[in-house]
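User: Predict the structure for this protein chain, please.
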Amino acid sequence: MTGSGSHTEEQLRAQLAALGVEPGGVLLVHASLRAVGPVSGGSEAVLRALRAALGPDGTVVVPTFTAHNSDSSPAYRERVRGLGQAERAAVRAAMPPYDAATMASDGMGVLAETVRTAAGAVRSAHPQTSFAALGARAGQVVSGHRPDCHLGEHSPLARLYDLDGRILLLGTGFERCTAFHLGEYRLARPPRRTYRCVVREGGARRWWAYEDVALDDGDFGTLGADLERDRPGVVRHGRVGAARCRLLGVVEAVDYARGWLARNRAAPRS
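Assistant: Here is the predicted structure, written as structure tokens:
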């Protein structure tokens, strides 16, 4: 670290390389910069370190979800808890429609916003579970994200699977590992539910309802712990800055999740 107590960009790059981040890779990053600690140059320096470790042919991908334009999200339910009917209606009326170019992500962290707003970044079209990407294969990763498919076969997660991408949990736990959701979609009969969010169509704001797989990350921490126990060597461990980190392949994560979820979650009722 420097004399000011900050980690440097070069130190982070070297630590990422030692962890196993390789040139030319496609890397899905879930990050807690608080866990990383102070970095000289801030979040932009962290992004530069990631891109340097990946090289000119590499690609950084981050989730840029937007729960604040939906009334079917846990974030909305928490926001309106205790409010009366008129107050709830006012909250719904003020919700902005999704705009891939301008809408900030919600609860995804500083690095996700740094990637989203970086020059050359592109973002997928889903109005609730978009991803942003930067680098050689960014367009390939985010294109074709259907608005009625959160995290399934028509989402960037499936493209990351096809590209043999990797997942970096940078100071975060398996609870944040969105790739496990693709395993939910690949179950024989995953439960489904209705979602609602605000979109813009023809210049007008409107509510849109659609049906998709019922997403549930409540057991992802246990899933990840079992993955590490059952598949020795699949998950690499190391430190980046002050953060404890894990690096693993998307294919390994999704395939294990599919089998684990089939064994450990109750089958839906017919």
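Strands lie at 26-31, 59-63, 122-123, 131-135, 166-170, 192-201, 204-213, 236-240, 243-249.
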